[in-house]
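Problem 3 from the worked examples.
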Amino acid sequence: MTTLTLVRGDITRQRADAIVNAANSSLLGGGGVDGAIHRRGGPAILQECRKLRASHYGRGLPTGQAVATTAGALEARWVIHTVGPVYRVATADPSLLASCYRACLRVADELGARTVAFPAISTGAYGWPMDDAARIAVQEVRATVTAVEEVRFVLFDDAAYTAFAERIG
């Protein structure tokens, strides 16, 4: 059974087998969590992302999918990159956000990762409402069969921490 834990803090400072990056489809860095992971992890992450773009993801990583690279200088073995959906009320598709969590856990299992640190995917610049994102994240992680022993939700501020704490109980 997977243990769910909450941490208020900076995901780039987590010691885990894998850290999840809320990436953009280019895989080449960006703002928020994506930019922070690329900055702290160093050039090795970007180098592997460029190789992925050149070989398998020429048009970018599709929303809801996940792929792994080295973690570079981070205190993890891998970074699992996933592209969350952009929230627009008329077209918001919660199944795509749910898919991010399932895909990351599948990649973690393929890697042999036992601890995975997740941010609140799609809640920053992509605008997904925090309460709904927390509900989807916790529900999907609990429903997914995985060998991952600990899923750690690393939440940047008190509002995110509270939203996830209410879902975990």
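Problem 4, a separate protein:
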Amino acid sequence: MEFRHLGRSGLKISEISYGNWLTHGSQIEADAARACVHAALDEGITTFDTADVYAGTRAEAVLGDALKGQRREGLEIFTKVFWPTGPGPNDRGLSRKHIFESIHGSLRRLGTDYVDLYQAHRFDYSTPLEETLRAFDDLVRQGKVLYIGVSEWRAEEIARALEIAEQMGFDRIVSSQPQYSMLWRVIEPEVVPLCEKEGIGQIVWSPIAQGVLTGKYQPGQPPPAGSRATDEKGGANFVKRFLNDDLLTRVQQLKPIADEAGLTMAQLAVAWVLQNPNVSSAIVGASRPEQVHDNVKAAGVKLDAELMRRIDEVLGDSVVRDPAETTSPRSRP
């Protein structure tokens, strides 16, 4: 496993991290989840990403149980706050009340005294940004959170948070967690240049585009049984936009490129995002340990400029690049 600094912070994280969105507590049973986490540990992954909302808070509990007995100082545990975790109007968003209640619930479920990174899971238009940043800063000062970050924030939202932190003497954002893959490059025009300038690292999710970049979805064919596209608990909604025959045909044309590089298509997809120097880590998920063992082989892989050019040529205008695709709810969900 290779390690990278999280932005310009002193924290080093594994360049492939393990995430449990849409798996732990929902798609797979606890025993299978534990096996996947242990496979990640065996492969040298030290960075684990979750969120309070995943599987209605169950994902944090499953991860905490799977990591029990591990040396805490040897792990980096990340979680997030924003989406609803209860029925009340304050069980959501980035108010001081919800942030404090959420972190205490997360720490309890994860079985730890602190998290290494606490992330605002979306931008909250209903709460003053100063209130959110002060609450995060207080958690840092209390030792319950070591670093703070954001997920799916636009460049102008990150810039405003940095400005307030500078004015108020708050801890600065060190990370951004966006969706990023060969097919979804909306962070490249605005978010990445700002983050490079400000020392913020990307921890990217869905580098395999919900499994589409593995090549398992064939043009003109129904999705394979048991795949994410057939999971009505949530996965199907996220993968749906990629399931058109033109895009799937282009993805099949990546296979000779992967073969030439000596990689599986999944490994090529993960290695591709890691070529971006602003990416600190790529999050991979798994429902089976063998998926973890496969994906980690992308660590340390260098793709030459010609191969990267050929990937762009194959995918053409199927790539989504519009920064406006990064969105947060205008009112609390």
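Solution to problem 4. DSSP finds twelve helices and ten strands in the chain. Residues 96-110 form the longest helix (15 residues).
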